[in-house]
Automatic annotation (TrEMBL):
It comes from the Eukaryota. Its EC number is 3.1.1.-. The gene is FAEB-2_3. Transmembrane segments: none annotated. GO terms for biological process: xylan catabolic process. Keywords: Calcium, Carbohydrate metabolism, Disulfide bond, Hydrolase, Metal-binding, Polysaccharide degradation, Serine esterase, Signal, Xylan degradation. It catalyses: feruloyl-polysaccharide + H2O = ferulate + polysaccharide. GO terms for molecular function: feruloyl esterase activity; metal ion binding. It comes from Orbilia javanica. Residues 1-20 form the signal peptide. This is Carboxylic ester hydrolase.
Length: 532
């Protein structure tokens, strides 16, 4: 790893012009452990790191990165209670003062536990001081969340304390006050983004909440029920990955043309009235020979896509969106690992009993989970008047082939804000915009124009950072909105191959407008679509 100590630097400076080494920057950086003071905060290390340095993942995590700027990399520990702490990093690039003096915090996904190096490399490459943190525990497992203090850190507290420490460090290090601060997160990170907008609007000037997993206890309940609906691999109710792919093909066969163009992307899956019965095996037919499904499997498909209701008809959660299960959905939620998320939640957070088994889950357990506040993990308050009053901006986007968190939840949230605040869409526009993104899976991937330069996407496909202009990213669109008052009318999406090569583009319209095919021409050309 190309981390330079002071000694290495003096050797380095013999070979290169002195001007290439910002010596004051390096000295201030390496001295931070001794000099920076902040409440409950300890600097664990501070090193000057050159652009192009490989950063390995932290313990038990997989997020590696290659730096895209020369920067000061600082690792800190913030104590949040007698039994909990947050490990965080701040990456502060050399060109920060010329790049708008911005700070950005990246959110965590799933159970957290990992510092999002990929996103920090992206943002610091754009001149931001980038903050990332481990949500209060080490590694992607939920096992440490049985301590309520650690669970509270995961719900929201880790973000508040690390934002405070990261901003203080940035101001101290550059000896200049930061100008604007941003938050970007997907999934659990999106949920936290909404929580910040609802309860802590003073923290960030602009927030991107992607595919937000708010209504979070309801999500846990729905996943526990899916474990029963889908069943274990090999059971009569279960569909394997190829069978889900066949379901997806049947969905396209029935509905791809509804939006006016056959392009393997459903522009609005909610308009598809899918009938899986077309896949039913006739007499003597089998999956192996005929690619058909049994009655039991067709019932699974219908139940997965329908809304879930509990005791006394209580609404639990939206059905899974049509068309997104076969790859990412299968890997994360409806395949062999089905039920592992809610199982761990019940084992560690609800009952603190590692022998808990989902076979004892029932609708009374569902009520217990949905009725508990969980330190505010629902993150569903429809009242954004604080955000509005402070002039802060919230940009939500959600993939329309997201099989992990149904996009219906984001429409529900948007509409709940509209009704709660009694504001029409054009009255929400100044501070809250929601972009449904067709052909985007959960956070990243999908076969549409799914790369929007948003949360978690740089980590998934770093090649995109070199092929897609940064100014067209959701992040820089948010910056323009916050700093220049130019609100994004659309979100530019790129359809990319696995090397980051552009195959097409689409400008995704904001709800309640619809992204509409004009009726002719290449659907991969954004000029052939309009907002109506
Ligand atoms: C959870 O269970 C463990 C082991 O039985 C125990 O040590 C711990 O105190 C419990 N935690 C809580 C919050 O009850
Ligand atoms: C709006 O939401 C807030 C927070 O949930 C609630 O206290 C308030 O009563 C709601 N107002 C209306 C008009 O629904
Ligand atoms: C902070 O950002 C605003 C909005 O872009 C800009 O007008 C202002 O000049 C900036 N201030 C500093 C000190 O950079």
């Amino acid at each position: 790893m190309k981390v330079l100590s002071i000694a290495a630097l003096s050797a380095f400076s013999l070979l290169t012009p002195v001007s290439a080494v910002p010596s004051q920057f390096v000295t201030t950086c390496t001295n931070l452990a001794a000099s920076f003071e902040n409440e409950n905060t300890e600097v664990l290390s501070s090193t000057y790191v050159l652009e192009g340095t490989f950063i390995p993942s932290t313990e038990m995590c997989t997020a590696t990165a290659t730096t895209r700027a020369n920067l000061c990399r600082v690792k800190l520990k913030v104590t949040t209670s007698s039994t909990s702490r947050v490990i965080m990093e701040v990456w502060m690039p050399t060109n920060w003062k010329n790049k708008g003096k911005r700070v950005i915090m990246s959110g965590y996904g799933a159970w957290g536990g990992c510092i999002p190096f990929g996103e920090m490399a992206w943002a610091s490459g754009l001149g931001f001081a980038a903050i990332g943190q481990d949500s209060g525990h080490t590694g992607p497992s939920a096992s440490e969340l049985s301590d309520p203090e650690i669970f509270k850190d995961w719900v929201y507290r880790s973000v508040l304390v690390s934002a405070q420490a990261g901003k203080a460090l940035t101001n101290y290090f550059y000896n200049t006050p930061l100008n604007k601060s941003y938050y970007i997160g997907c999934s659990t990170g999106g949920r936290v983004g909404l929580k910040l907008a609802q309860d802590h609007p003073e923290q960030f000037d602009g927030i991107i909440a992607a595919a937000p997993a708010n209504y979070w206890p309801n999500i846990e309940v729905s996943e526990a029920l899916y474990a029963h609906i889908v069943g274990a691999p090999g059971s009569p109710t279960f569909l394997n990955q190829a069978q889900w792919a066949a379901v997806e093909a049947a969905i396209l066969a029935q509905c791809d043309g509804i939006d006016g163009v056959i392009d393997t992307v459903l522009e609005n899956p909610a308009r598809c009235d899918f009938r899986p019965e077309t896949m039913l095996c006739g007499a003597g037919q089998t999956w192996e020979l005929d690619g058909c499904l049994t009655v039991t499997q067709i019932e699974t498909v219908k139940k997965i896509h329908a809304p879930l209701y509990g005791n006394n008809g209580r609404f639990i959660y939206h059905g899974v969106v049509l068309g997104g299960i076969s790859s990412q959905g299968y890997a994360l939620k409806y395949g062999p690992t089905v039920g592992s998320g809610p199982r761990d939640f019940l084992r560690y957070v609800v009952y603190n009993d590692t022998s808990y088994d989902l076979s004892s889950f029932n609708l009374d357990t569902a009520d217990l989970i949905m009725d508990n506040d969980w330190f505010g993990a629902h993150s569903k308050s429809p009242d954004l008047s604080g955000l509005q009053a402070l002039g802060k901006k919230l940009l939500v986007y959600h993939g329309l082939s997201d099989a992990i968190v149904p996009p219906a939840a984001s429409y529900q949230y948007y509409d709940s804000v509209s009704l709660n605040m009694s504001l029409t869409a054009s009255e929400l526009d100044p501070f809250f915009r929601f972009f449904p993104v067709s052909g985007l899976s959960h956070c990243y991937g999908g076969n549409g124009a799914s790369y929007v330069g948003g949360a978690s996407q740089a980590t998934y496909l770093p090649e995109a950072l070199d092929s897609v202009p940064a100014e067209n990213s959701a992040l820089m669109a948010l910056v323009k909105w916050v700093e220049d008052g130019e609100a994004p009318e659309t979100l530019r999406g790129y359809k990319l191959d696995s090397t980051g090569e552009t195959l097409g583009q689409k400008d995704h319209c904001r709800y309640p407008l619809r992204t509409t095919y004009k009726g002719s021409g290449d659907p991969n050309n954004r000029g052939n679509w309009e907002c109506t």
